[in-house]
Amino acid sequence: MHHPHDPFVRVRGAREHNLRGVDVDIPRDALVVFTGVSGSGKSSLAFGTIYAEAQRRYFESVAPYARRLIHQVGAPKVGDISGLPPAVSLEQRRSAPGSRSSVGTVTALSNSLRMLFSRAGEYPAGADRLDSDAFSPNTAAGACPACHGLGVVHRTTEELLVPDPSLSIREGAIAAWPGAWQGKNLRDVLDALGHDVDRPWRELPARDREWILFTDEQPVVTVHPVREAGRIQRPYQGTYTSARRYVLHTFSDSRSQTLRARAERFLRSTPCGECGGSRLRPEALAVTFAGRTIAELAALPLATLADVLDSHRDGAGGESARVLTADLLTRIGTVAELGLGYLSLDRPAPTLSSGELQRLRLATQLKSGLFGVVYVLDEPSAGLHPADTEALLTVLGRLKAAGNTVFVVEHHLDVVRGADWLVDVGPRAGEHGGRVLHSGPVAELAAVSESATRRFLFGPLQGGAREQRTPSGWLRLRGVRRHNLRGVDVDFPLGVFTAVTGVSGSGKSTLASQVLAGAVASGAAGTGQADCASAEGLSAVDRLVRVDQRPIGRTPRSNLATYTGLFDVVRKLFAATEAARKRGYKAGRFSFNVAGGRCETCQGEGFVTVELLFLPSTYAPCQDCGGGRYNSATLEVRYRGRNIAEVLDLTVEAAAGFFREVPAAQRSLRTLLDVGLGYLRLGQPATELSGGEAQRIKLAGELQRVRRGCTLYILDEPTTGLHPADVEVLLRQLHGLVDTGSTVVVVEHDMDVVAGADWVIDLGPGGGDAGGRIVAAGRPGEVAGAEGSRTAGYLARARR
Ligand code: ADP
Ligand code: ADP
Ligand code: ZN
Ligand code: ZN
Predict the structure, then answer these.
(1) How confident is the model at residue 464 (pLDDT cuts 50, 70, 90)?
(2) How many domains does the chain have?
(3) How far apart are the C-alpha atoms of 777 and 796, rounded to whole Å?
(4) Could you say which ligand is closest to the alpha carbon of residue 274?
(5) Which PROSITE patterns does the UniProt entry name for this protein (predicted)?
(6) Which of 509, 717, 747 has most ligand 2 atoms within 8 Å of its beta carbon, as the pocket-test mutant?
(7) What pTM, to 2 d.p., does this model score?
(8) pLDDT of residue 548
(9) CATH of the domain at 729
(10) Relative to the CA of 353, which ligand 2 atom is closest?
(11) Sign, Cα dihedral of 451, 452, 454, 459
């Protein structure tokens, strides 16, 4: 029985994923941290059980129509939860913002600024006051009519579409056309329309060239395809689409990332001439506040915007302006406190890291006025410099003080130490985890010998007494300019492990992932580098590998097995079984991506998309195959006692045993084990993997390649999502790469990793315009003593 004054959330019999009938009591009105190695079941408990159940109850109460859908999506596997308040999730994965959203829309700060302009802006003489909507590029009332509020116009030219005019259309003159059947179709349509597809492009009449590339007409003609490979093809009705139309359409509407990227190669985008890129109507741009347009204010770093607003607190507009300004200032203050004062309101949300985005949402929640809610967060310290961790704890504390409960899945030990209550899950990953080892005050974990977290919280620091390596050479970049880097000179040592440090927004990612990666990539291709005046030593690098946290695929069709190539090996094994040969099943039969062997109800996805009104769509298991993806005939074929669906359900660890005698499978399985991913299932859809897991899968892919020459690896915060025990495993791998002659550059906040590096480049001193300089560079010991570096003190502490 739930007692209204019972201060605990009581979970009974939680069996989601790997949880083994977990019973746990967690206090409300507290800051609770969930810890455990990666794959131990923390998210399955915090998000998969507690949050999911709160969500389910909420839907049931507000939307009876949604019940059937909820039933389809499935309730979390849990016996009972009592004392559960409504929950709000600030999870990082699966919450990609739309392409039109920005810092201003995510935080709703733009709304207030627009209100301020509407009520208290200075209008040109005789102009009518505008509604606040008129200051938004995302409404018809505000959008610049020339670019529809996009700020850029996409153009294409004959040179882009037809790079080699000596070719005929049949030879592929129109490079922008799609490949395969569609391309042939367009060619045959042109032929049927009477164009000469065998003459070199440049010899065609100018009017025809213009029409072929740019027309908006879409004529339909009967096409009589020529015989191909001896097969007679039937006539059909073909529609013509000009190259420009095809490219623009693909670029704006295609759901395929690859196709969009390909289309983009044939486009040049230029700022819109009408609005100068500000995306707004001229009437809106004529209004100013503190002497600036709303577009100008939205382009300022938030910290600067706050200064401008502050100095105009008592300006025109009267009481309502004062109230709006004061409100804006408090809200911007919270964002700045979370280390994000360098962002501007107009910064597109898709260019933010997932850590930045989550902290923005967190800052926004503080003003929501909600209380009695459980907030569930996923590693809010991701991307945060140790100097800013204190502020994070303060903000979490304020959420709690407002009458809420805060649950965070977190690895950062300073955050763990700051919690009121600790739930430690483990002891290890997957089937070796799934138990709650400790639920209580942090200090009491010291008595729990099974815990993998205990050693790091209480044990003596095992200082990285690694012998420091000597660089084998240098990459010297001069006059680096991009974002907030304004003409700096940087030297990267080769053949060693380098850590790039600095507060959030200081320019680390820009320097490592963009400038350095770009210089090396273009240096290898022999082209110039746009981001730096000169670069020296590039020829010493044979290969560049960027291991980032982007998903390995965006649909449930890609998974661990398809991504690593392991699936090809497995399908061949199945095709070679006697049962398969007898039935004439080839390897393709065992693919869920083509018709034949797969379940046709879900077309091999195992899931069907469920559209919930007003909510992001979710996936529910297919009723026919129950998520198995294959039809029953395919599943009758077994390899060593298991069918293909059962094999995809194996964890990497189990598969390593199962495929013991298959060398081709062993290679990828071993490297996945080496990077600590033994707990993942082979068929786990890409959409269920975290950024950190995606990054480690890519790293495993790299490790299994045969290496020659000097490779440069660039990793952006590889420790995100990793428990200190997982970090140890990862570091062993990365240092192993350096020992075999490669160069590793990581952007990193974990000071234990930085202390173990051979070289440190510290950026700053602040974020945004207050950063972008090299504050210190040298051995960790040197940087730990550098003056004016916000990293130095924390690094010194980690070296002790
Ligand atoms: P953590 O948050 O501690 O890293 P998770 O809760 O994400 O761990 O995962 C715990 C276990 O559950 C792992 O073995 C993982 O592979 C498995 N798992 C996670 N998500 C799913 C899912 N959607 N379906 C099946 N198994 C899953
Ligand atoms: P860090 O990696 O140290 O957190 P970044 O390199 O991401 O810092 O950012 C450095 C500066 O460049 C910041 O002021 C940031 O706002 C800006 N910046 C980064 N990426 C973009 C982008 N895609 N568009 C505009 N500005 C950017
Ligand atoms: Zn415009
Ligand atoms: Zn199905």
Answers:
(1) low
(2) 5
(3) 15
(4) 3
(5) ABC_TRANSPORTER_1, ABC_TRANSPORTER_2
(6) 509
(7) 0.81
(8) 79
(9) 3.40.50.300
(10) 7
(11) positive
